[in-house]
Amino acid sequence: MFRLMCITAHPDDEAGSFGGTLRTYRDRGVETCVVCLTPGQAASHRGGAKNDQELAAIRKREFAASCEVLRVSRPIILDYADGQLYRQELNRMVYELTFQVRQFRPDVILTFGPEGGVTGHSDHSLAGIFASLAFHWAGRANRYPDQMQSGLRPHCAARLYYTTAEFPLPGRQPITLSPATAIIDIGDHLETKISAFKAHKSQAPLWPLFEDNVRRRGRCEMFHLAARIGTGPVKQETDLFEPIRSRD
Fold this sequence. Notes:
Layout: E1 3-8, H1 13-16, H2 19-27, E2 31-36, H3 52-69, E3 74-77, H4 90-104, E4 108-111, H5 122-137, E5 159-164, E6 182-185, H6 189-198, H7 207-217, E7 220-228
Parallel strand pairs: 1-2, 1-4, 2-3, 4-5
Antiparallel strand pairs: 5-7, 6-7
Helix pairs in contact: 2-6, 3-6, 4-5, 6-7
């Protein structure tokens, strides 16, 4: 069985940028994992929470509900500080994600590019940078060798993709998006993606902007091939797994 891992920064990222692809591949029998670095406790929209701790608890439940809609095999939400990923020690973050990669052993990893996706959020940028290092380092036995003492082994995922799009959200600072090298037809899972985003009820004020944006993009999600095993020219793809052989 193929495995797909998605590394994000906040609850609702899994639906907003990756939801259609996660559900499409799950329906094809791919095992999926989402690693979310923060519980989103610094969000502007508070959902009635009295403090950051209450909001974190609410958003963890919403993340679980969204992952149920997307049928995510392994949802993981960590407790790093929302809005503060730039303050985290890089080695600590990459260590955590390298551990997750070696444990789940994905064939493909999805994350944000260093621009931060269509929102340009700094947490998105850093999640993508941490994830990119983990993609490369998880396969090297001389990176975090102490993890092997617990039975883990080095693991080289076959491909790393950044989410991208034809246009950013309006009214934001300038964003330079990576060119799309893979366009995934998510079909009717456009509606699934919207439903998963709306599982984040605390973020209801964002629903109209989100829905308008994703309907403009249509029934596809776009990705940029950032790294891969193998060489040769990059070709336009419609399947993230087409050139990969299952290693089970």
